[in-house]
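Could you help me review a protein record that somebody else here produced? What it holds is a sequence and that sequence's fold in token form. I need someone to confirm that the token line plausibly describes how this chain folds. Take the sequence as given and treat only the tokens as open to question. This is what I was given:
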Amino acid sequence: MEKIDGQSSRYNQIVQVRKKTRDANRRANITA
């Protein structure tokens, strides 16, 4: 699948944010 550069970069940004939030949630669950 080919995507427009702007679209794919925005999608990658969203994926990175989701990964960060998921890691943060996991850390919070471990501490809690």
About this structure: The chain has a mean pLDDT of 86. The CA atoms of residues 21 and 27 lie 10 Å apart. The longest helix spans residues 5-31. The chain is about 85% helix and 0% strand.
